[in-house]
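Repro:
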Amino acid sequence: MKKILVIGGSYFAGRVFVEELIKIQDVAVHVFNRGRIQLGISGVTEHRGDREDASQISRAISGEEWDAVIDFCAYTPSHVELLLNSLQGKIRQYILISTTTIYKNSWNLPIREDALTVSGPQPELGPHASYGFDKWRAELVARQTCVRIGIPYTILRPAIIYGFYNYAPREQYFFDLLQQGEAVVIPDGGLSLFSFIWVVDMARMIIRCIGEEKAHNQEFNLASDELVSYPRIVEVLEEIIGKKIHVVRKSIEEINREHTPLPFPMDEHLVYSGAKLQRLLDFDYTPFTVGMRQTFRYYLMVLKKRRESST
């Protein structure tokens, strides 16, 4: 029986991954996090601790041996270094969940795994200015440390993730507008394009990488080959709900002036190639319409439960 350790696993992509992983026979699933959200999933062993404290890592998880460690919440080089050093000799494979934010902006699209990476913080991202650069530095430490301690690594860089448990104001922004009967504002003129990955596809691809020698010491984007724009999101939502949506097109200047919180860029592309891992795993991405339909159903279910609990 394989023993899999998930670092994080309580939120969004990590939680969906755990839910998909427990469907597999002969896998023992363990999670390690601060315990702020209890999973309470049958068959999952939960370990509580702070990954920034070596003594807590040692006490909670260093006594076991792990066939694979999947790290969803390494945001800095020190996160990776402390974890791997604390578990040295206990791990057979390390899978780091990174991000496509590590790449420099480029017009050479789609952006592939060998593209140029950021060389410092990105002030245009405001409070998240250091996110991509820190993730990139975490990747470098992961490679160096895994080579030093003699274990294979796999680095996965998801594009825009959507789906169940999403706490980021992405697809829910549009769902809320539909439920409130408000118009959907989209940018007029420019046609920014985005790469998405459904969180369930992401989970299944991570699972396929566990024990896969072809994925050892490799970096992969996780991105569907289907490109999405603001008008395309509207089309998909209209198909899902079965009626036309009231759309208001405004200039980027007007949207910014009115502080309309659109979730994606209005004047740049975020387009990445996920073909490398897709070819390796012979994997078919879920169509955007299918993934969004499932996500909207989940959104309505959560909304219904909230209303019932408040009455």
